[in-house]
Amino acid sequence: MSETAITDPTIERQWRQLIESTSTEARALLSGTASAAAPALARHFYDGMMDDPLARGYLDHAVVDQRLRPSMERWVRELACSWDAERVREQIAVQRHVGLVHARIRLRVDLVMRGARLLKLALTRLLLDSDVATLAVRVEAAHTGQALLDMAIEVMSAQYVDAHDMATRTDEAYRSFASSLNMSLERERQRSALLDWENRLLQEVMTAPAGLELPPLGQSSFGLWVRHKAPAIFAQASELAALHECITHIDTALLPLCQREIAAGGEELRRRLRAGLGEVGQARYLVDTLFDRLVDLEAGRDALTQLLNRRFLPAVLGREVELSRRGGPSFAVLMVDVDHFKGINDSHGHESGDRVLQHLANVLVACVRSGDSVFRYGGEEFLLLVVEVNAPQALQLAEKIRQSAAGESILLTGGQRLTTTVSIGVAVHDGHPDYQRLIEQADRALYRAKAEGRNRCVLASD
To answer: What is the reported pLDDT for 24?
Structure first.
């Protein structure tokens, strides 16, 4: 169910009844008090939330000060000053949207309820302590304010449950899709990636000068895949936790010992190296065990390009936001669009247009790493989730994609060849808990790239 779903007739009727039964004096007191105290109420709300260790994980002071507190002030004013019974549906739609955002950022509903309790207590105290109205009016205004807050939270919670259920089903569908890939091929890809790292390690140990840092397994293509994609495929498998421990042990214990012995050389270095390679063998065994548990099915792909489709974006982006919230590195979203695609279809036919999209899909997959994800976003648009990168690295990848797309000609039906270009918008996650905002930033950057002449990469500005 979306935020535009049909309004619950019960809550709409009760909201209208509350408005119609509230006296003019109580309305004026509630509106005036809430409007004047909106900054203080918002500050009280977020101060209380920031004192809570559970809530603090979803918030930081910069995000609260710059974005959330002004939004809370507007929300308080709109809720307490909307007395037109004919616009109740609009108010309910606002609360649905807030509940949808809470579900998208995976904010726990009990934390929302706790914040609402703090807000109600503060607003009630202000109304009852007011000296501009009789006690009866102050009590009526306090009861009305509490009821409005309760109904708003009720609508938010209902939307939250619907959206959370949908997200859970989508997450499960993504797991089903991820586990239905060609597991034999994926197993060999990861075994090959692990072998590549092993060979690189041996080469570095044998040829590198003292002081050169050995390549961490966790930063290799294999390590990124384990951290970002394997959890979706294997869920809570015990071998996956053991694999994480294995990689951590290699990077934090065995590699530093090898590095320390490089300068000295001799038998001790070889012993340390044997221990490290033995641990790599254990990692290889764990990977094989994980893949052995899955069946080989094909489902859930975009029919034309064989990429992920956009229904899995909430599952994938939500997981990356959660990793970042727990202190992980930043990630980026790239929006890629084929330039003048309508002209290609008009001049060469839709079959040629399909070939262009298939070609670009292959280019994108070839440019990214195992831990990244490529989606067919819709039409001629593609979305890339690129993990563990900063802004310069994300722009560098975008430029690589742009050059690769422009540098290869596409064979069309009838033997013709066509060269196309792409425009790319890049947005790097800045800690905001709503991934939809990141997609919108990348999309705006893409439109800037097109407006500035196409065939270029543009980094989103805040």
So the answer is: 94
Burial class (CB in 10 A: 0-12, 13-18, 19+), 252: exposed
Residue where a domain stops, chosen among 162, 177, 192? 177
> pLDDT (tens digit, 9 = 90+) per residue, 386-425?
999 999 999 999 999 999 999 888 887 777 888 899 999 9
Closest by CA to 189, choosing from 370, 425, 397, 352, is 370
Average predicted confidence (pLDDT) for the chain: 83
What are 208-220's pLDDT values in tens digits? 565 667 888 888 8
Q: Say yes or no to pLDDT of 233 above 50.
A: yes
Q: Work out the pLDDT band at 147, boundaries 50, 70, 90.
A: very high
Domain closes at, from 134, 157, 177 = 177
* Each residue's pLDDT tens digit, 109-127: 788 888 888 889 999 999 9
**Number of residues written out for the chain:** 462
Q: Cβ(5)–Cβ(162) under 8 Å?
A: yes
Q: List the CATH number of the domain containing 358.
A: 3.30.70.270
Domain membership of residue 298 (yes or no) is no
In this prediction the pTM is 0.56
Look at the alpha carbons of 272, 277, 281, 286 in this order and tell me if their dihedral is positive or negative: positive
Q: What is the pLDDT of residue 166?
A: 66
Q: How many structural domains does the chain have?
A: 3
The CATH number that applies at residue 48 is 1.10.490.10
287 shares a domain with 164? no
User: Residue 301 falls within a domain, yes or no?
Assistant: no
Please, which pLDDT band fits residue 192 given cuts at 50, 70 and 90? Answer: confident
CA distance 351 to 53: 56
What pLDDT is stored for residue 211 in this prediction?
Answer: 62
